[in-house]
Amino acid sequence: MPNIIEITDLSSPGLDVFARLTEAQLRNRLEPEKGIFIAESPKVIARALDAGCEPKALLMERKHIEGQAGEIIARCGEVPVYTADRAVLAGLTGYELTRGVLCAMGRPRLPSVEALCADARRVAVLEGIVDPTNIGAIFRSAAALHMDAVLVTPTCCDPLYRRAARVSMGTVFQVPWTRIGEDHTQWPQPGLRRLQKLGFKTAAMALSDRSVSIDDPRLMAEEKLAIVLGTEGDGLAQTTIADCDYTVKIPMSHGVDSLNVAAASAVAFWQLRTI
User: Fold this and answer.
1) CA angle at residue 21 from 160 to 164, to 5 degrees?
2) Sheet strands (E) in 74-172
3) Is the torsion defined by CA of 117, 120, 121, 126 positive or negative?
4) pLDDT of residue 29
5) SS3 214
6) Among candidates 162, 53, 36, which has minimal Cα distance to 102?
7) How many CA within 13 A on the CB side of residue 261?
8) Cβ within 8 Å of residue 88, ≥6 positions away
9) Please, what is the end-to-end C-alpha distance for the chain in angstroms?
10) Which of 17, 19, 38, 186 is 20 to 30 A from 161 (CA-CA)?
11) Side by side, which strands form the sheet with 149-152?
């Protein structure tokens, strides 16, 4: 039977994960392996459950208990289901819930880079991308456009950030991913060396005097290719570009110098996919 709890006291400790802990606090609560993330919307929650993530608590509008969240509740066993009307929940969380449902879940254990890339031929590497909307959009493109895995650098936004996972439509739970380094000393040179030892050629998406076009046949011929995408605005660090095997550009017209990183990722993933 579901454990339905009507919210009568907004200061209840059980609501802390939804209202009073920052993303960083959720991620590092107690110990990293006991960290929590918040999944938003039934579709995202369902994909997280499909991936084996453990539900801790649900928060939803009252009307969804027997509506669109009914199946989610059934899958979550006896975890607490906190409920109230939309206005109370918005006051608690500080934002309108997308499709009226949140789930606090245990963070999955991430694999090593070597394990993740063992059978991969095309991987995306995200360097310092900080906008969760861009992270979510890139993951959605990676899932749709044949990327085998995604690697995120230490300064990258967390792919399990609530808005990133929501924008990805839950594909952060479908595309294998992990971190390539835990702090800034492990990227770029150490991380690029790890990829090269695994047999990957590295392609920096950047404009420079030595850039080759994204349709260069040498890129398509590479057996294993890591596509490296840089942060919004500044793009990839010069040291990253210098140490990659290729520098790659998407030809532009009408005087446009570049695309948003999420849009560029979709073009790159499609063009450089394995045939």
Assistant:
1) 20
2) 80-84, 101-106, 122-126, 149-152
3) negative
4) 52
5) coil
6) 162
7) 28
8) 7, 10
9) 49
10) 186
11) 177-179, 149-152, 122-126, 225-229, 201-205, 246-249, 212-213
Distances (CA, A) of 137 to 66, 129, 141, 144, 171: 31, 12, 6, 11, 9
What token pair was written down for 81? Answer: 């289901």
pLDDT by residue, tens only, the chain of 275 residues: 689 999 999 889 999 999 887 777 777 654 555 789 999 999 999 999 999 999 999 999 988 998 889 999 999 999 999 999 888 998 888 887 777 899 999 999 999 999 999 999 999 999 999 999 999 999 999 999 999 999 999 999 999 999 999 999 999 999 999 999 989 899 999 999 999 999 999 999 998 878 999 999 999 999 999 999 999 888 999 999 999 999 999 998 998 888 999 999 999 999 999 87
pTM: 0.92
- Which of 225, 218, 236, 227 lies closest to 198, judged by CA? 225
- Give CA angle at 159 (224, 154), nearest 5°: 70
Residue type, 219: L
Amino acid identity for residue 44 in this structure: V
CA dihedral 238, 240, 245, 248 (to 10 degrees): -60
